[in-house]
Each structure stands twice: as C-alpha cells, then as structure tokens.
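Question:
Write out your own:
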Amino acid sequence: MRRSMRGFFSRLVLVAAAPVAFALAGCEETSKPSASSAPAASAKPAAANQADGAAAADTKDLKRIIILENGNSPFWDAARAGLQDAENELKLRQAGMRAVLEVNDSAAAGQLEKLQQFGTQPDIIGLGISAVDADNVAVAEELRKLQKKGVKIVTIDSDVDRDKFRDCRFAFIGTDNLVGGRELGACAKGLRRAGGGYVTFVGQIGAQNAIERIKGFAEGAGPKFQSLDTAADGMDRPRARENVRNAIQNHKGKLTTLVGIWSYNAPAITDVIKELGVRKDFTIVVFDAEPIAIQQIAAGNIDAMVVQNPYEMGYQGVRLMKALYENDQKTVTAMLPHHGQPDGDLYDTGLKIVVPDDKSPLGPSLFGSKTEFLTLEKFKTWLEKYRLQGS
C-alpha cells in the first residue's frame, strides 16, 4: 500500500514556525514506503478530514494509543507528525481510536508517575515509551501491569534493557543505536585518522539509546581513539553547554573529538566552540539534525551527522500498536517477520550520514550498506521535499 504525506506538510510548517526551544535525544521492508522513498502528495481535502472523524467525533469516547516521550524536544515534533499521519491514514477514528503524544519531564520518575496514572485509565489500548532509564525496575513493572490489563506495549527511540526486561514490551521501534554509534565512530575515524581523546555528551547515561550509541562509537572509532569522559546533563541546556566548556578545559592537550549523543548536544557543542574560538582544534560529530545543527553544519561547525527518522518512529509505532490491538497478524508479521527469534523484535527505522559537501574525506564506502550517505545539499533537498525542518 502506497500512502501519501497528506496532512503531514501543513502540520510540519506549523511545527517549524514555533519549534520547542529545548532539544533531545529492527528490520524488513514493509508495505508502507519509508519517508525517504514515499512520493510527495497534495494535502488531504477538508471533507476527508471530517470524514475520518465522523464515526467517533467526540474524542472522550475514543480509545487511546499513546507515545510517551523521554523529554520534550524538537526531535519529537517529527514523531508527532508521523503519529498524526498514522491516525489519519490508518483511519483510527473510524475504528474508535486516536493517537496522542504525551510529554515527559525528562526524568524516569516522571515516566513512572505517568505509567501509574495510565494504569487507572481504562481507555488506553496501546503505549509506546521512549525509556529514560533502561534499567529501571519500577518502570518495567508498571509496563507489565499495563500488559496484564490488555494494553499493547512497545518501546520507541530508546528501549528498556533487553536482557532484563524484554518481556515487558512486544517490540522496539527506532534506530539500531549500536549500529548508529558505530557509524558515528566511523565518521570520527575517517575524519581524524590519528585518533586521540574524545568526550561524549548526552542527556541521561542510563538511557538504552545512550548506552548503545556510546558503546558503538568506541567500536566504530577504533583503538586510536580513547574515551576521556562521558558528560551527562540531565537534559538541561545550560548544563549541556557547561559540560562542553569543562571538557575543553579539563582535557587540554588530549581532547581531539567532541561527540554529541542526543540531538540538543550538537547546538551545545557549537555554541561553546564559537564562543571560545577553537573550532580548528576539534573534530565534531553528532547525532540528529535539529534545525540549529543543520545551520551549524552549513556554517562549517559540524563535520558529520548521523541522522535518525523520528517521523517513522511515530508512524510505525501507531501502526504496530493498532495492529496488535486488532489482532491484525498480517500487519504484525509484515513489520516483524522474525518476531520470537533473537533480535526479531527490533523494527529499524533507518539511518543517514550527512556531511557538509563533497569535499568531506568521508564517503559511502566507510559505512554499512543500509546507511544512506548524503551531502548537506542533498539532505536539505530531501527535507524540503517533505517540508521538514529537521530529523
């Protein structure tokens, strides 16, 4: 089934006009083309929008599919757009359902409180959670309680500890973060062949995506690179910038590479680099392409970005939870054909490597065959095609 991007464009224009000020941070081809391959289409007519909700116009009568984010960020704006498109295109409202993105306060305690609240609300049929703390026993237990009530559980963007808590969710939808980390490490290796010391900057060290990206970076960068520190900021933007200042001050003579693990770490790094006037001293590689990060790579302040697809995380998360609720085994199997086998519960939404221009020493041969390699110009063309400001 080929789907259009109807309704997606107009919402993303609104998102771009007023972005949230604070930033963050699987498997087979499915019947729905990915956002990187689907053709653009005209917006959905107003009459069609009205028809979608005709069967259940009053939202209080609709069952809820929820995606609970890990902390409010522009990263989640694209996920929200994917969620909303899934609601429209999969005709959730006609089926008596709706999809909602719930904002978290960046803490595991905040997620735990929301999960406890969800347990008292009988209208919830599906929950996708981006886990702040992969090893949080209390969060895993609340997810199990929700499962016992019949709620379909998936993790999105950041998984729980799969060795300990795999049973508390059906599947993970998002980036293969270990692979993403390796690709970021390969960027550093290709850009600075002599290696040196590096510091990784992240919001929460205990998040599974952080754990896997940091581990993967070390593997991809290789033995010529040495980790000097991992600086966590608790998703506090001033602290994120202060961590960069401290790293530069504390590791003079050893630090060669600055590594942004979550999306807002890229702007934090470039803010400090410009403030101190030390751009020439460092290689800078980061995850995600926030609008500010795109501006900074264009200005020469970022050497390479590993870019995820949060739109697909939102869309595919809703798609899977709807299928699970409706016992639609055809869709579940299409998305996860090897479910029940090792790593068969991981749905990969894909990666891109973005470099400033064709003068970069990096090239597609340095990366995995499933990773798309783009210059900034080509990446911006992709963004403009879908009226995205970032990814």
In short: The two ends are 24 Å apart (CA to CA). Residues 310-325 form the longest helix (16 residues). The longest strand covers residues 225-232. Confidence is low (pLDDT under 50) at residues 1-57.
